[in-house]
User: Which sequence fits this backbone?
């Protein structure tokens, strides 16, 4: 068993695998491109996502929130009917 799977089993937790992704956040950009391989259960890898969304906020690997700000800017320029 992987440590993540062991932890989930020990505490009787279940991941919502259709909502769960793994990402790497790091200040040094050469480390931020690293892709993790995390198993939610034996043989099932969680999908890796560079820019996950958490509580409506789009995160990027160096936590600059650039993508989130660009999305908000794009939304704010929409014309109301």
Assistant:
């Amino acid at each position: 068993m992987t440590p993540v799977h062991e932890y989930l089993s020990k505490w009787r937790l279940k991941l919502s695998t259709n909502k769960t992704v793994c990402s790497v956040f790091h200040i040094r950009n050469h480390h931020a491109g690293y892709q993790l391989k995390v198993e939610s259960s034996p043989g099932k890898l969680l999908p890796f996502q560079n820019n996950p969304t958490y509580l409506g906020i789009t995160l990027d690997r160096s936590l600059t929130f650039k993508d989130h700000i660009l999305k908000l800017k794009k939304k704010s320029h929409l014309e109301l009917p």
